[in-house]
Amino acid sequence: MSKKRVLSCIQPTGEMHIGNYFGAVKNWVDIQDKYECYYGVVDLHAMTMPYDPKILKSNTLRMIAELLACGIDPEKSVLFVQSLVPQHTELTWIFNCVASYGELSRMTQFKDKSEIIENSGKSQFISAGLFTYPVLQAADILIYKADFVPVGRDQVQHLELSRNIAVRFNRQFGEYFPEPQPLLTNIQKLVSLADPTKKMSKSLGEKHYIGLFEEEASIRKKVKSAVTDTGQEQGDLMSEGVENLFNLIKACGKDGEYESLMKDYKQGNLKYKDLKETTADALVELTAPFRKRREELIRDMSYLERLSKELSEKARSVAGETLVGVRKLAGLPVI
Ligand code: TRP
């Protein structure tokens, strides 16, 4: 039996942090044998918010390097840069005529991001691209006829829209696209080190996250100053900060250490110093090889540029085939 197809994408927002890794990319790496995987770096999506073109280009190449460094294997999976597969944009236009203005108006991410722009105190410009962002996302998914999409909770509504677009296209023009389903997997959600009530995110500031490619000394320093108890804990409940460190140890695959520290915790004699040291050791051990591989890859940006083009070719050929069928069904000439 042929493998089911998975697609997922990530925005080139600058260096990945451990929240991105444990919350998404680690799972991408783990499922490479089980599924036929397509993974994209979506630079066109990054254009929907104010951005600097030079930074976008280098962030895109760096993200390719980072995905390779943490284990996406181009022998197994198709890795591509979205803008190097121009069929995505072509299918977006066709889907713009299949999606309704009303359903796009109901997308919560559009409302959230518009608000961020409005409250930024800078330019108040909200592009039409931000509005049609989820249509481009539907094109990313459907152009590879993906069966499954690993997505976080924040992307569920977008995936639903992709399914609606697939169903409507099929009804209007003839059965063509499968309905992509969410792929629910055991991912580890991490919270901020400095404020464990918030999801780990770079926008909170330096001390809130750990970069996946950070130097050992800096990782150790950040773990050391992570918030443990806030004094607001209810009864016997483990504080969010302590739980976060336990989750990290587990996510790094250190089950033995996890069990033993948990035993200490339950007996009431866990030393936070030990918990933090174990956490830092686990993170350093996991990420040191990632950092080394990333450094090797980003040393030669022109090689990375060539590599990105070469890797995207496979995606382009699959996307091109899908588009021939779409053009025929939609009443457009085939090029
Ligand atoms: N919107 C997604 C995010 O911000 C990124 C994305 C773009 C995506 N296209 C996709 C995710 C297709 C899954 C499938 O995280």
Structural notes for this entry:
This protein has a three-stranded parallel beta sheet. It has two domains: 5-187 and 301-330, Rossmann fold (3-Layer(aba) Sandwich), CATH 3.40.50; 202-295, Tyrosyl-Transfer RNA Synthetase. The longest helix has 30 residues, at 301-330. The protein has 13 helices and five strands. Helix 8 (156-173) links the parallel strand 4 (148-149) and strand 5. The chain starts with a strand and ends in a 5-residue tail after the last helix. The mean pLDDT is 95. By secondary structure, the chain is mainly α.
Task: Please outline the helices and strands.
Elements: E1 5-10, H1 18-30, E2 36-41, H2 43-46, H3 53-69, E3 78-81, H4 87-96, H5 101-105, H6 108-119, H7 128-142, E4 148-149, H8 156-173, E5 181-182, H9 216-224, H10 240-251, H11 255-266, H12 272-298, H13 301-330
Parallel strand pairs: 1-2, 2-3, 4-5
Tryptophan (TRP) binds at residues 7-9, 11, 42, 45, 137, 140-141, 149, 151, 155.
CATH class of the largest domain: Alpha Beta
Number of helices: 13
Strand content: 5-15%
Shape: globular
State the separation between the terminal residues, measured CA to CA.
Answer: 33 Å
Q: Can you write the helix and strand succession as a string? A: EHEHHEHHHHEHEHHHHH
Percent of residues in helices comes to: 40-55%
Assign the CATH superfamily of the largest domain.
HUPs
**Tally of discrete structural domains:** 2
Query: Which parts are unreliable, with pLDDT below 50 for 5 consecutive residues or more?
Result: none
- What is the CATH architecture assignment of the largest domain? 3-Layer(aba) Sandwich
| Content-based structural category | mainly alpha
Give, in spatial order, the strands making up the sheet with the most strands. 1-2-3
How confident is the prediction overall: mean pLDDT? 95
Radius of gyration in whole Å, from Cα?
22 Å
> How many strands in all?
5
Which small molecules are bound?
Answer: tryptophan
Largest sheet properties: 3 strands, parallel
Topology-level CATH name of the largest domain: Rossmann fold
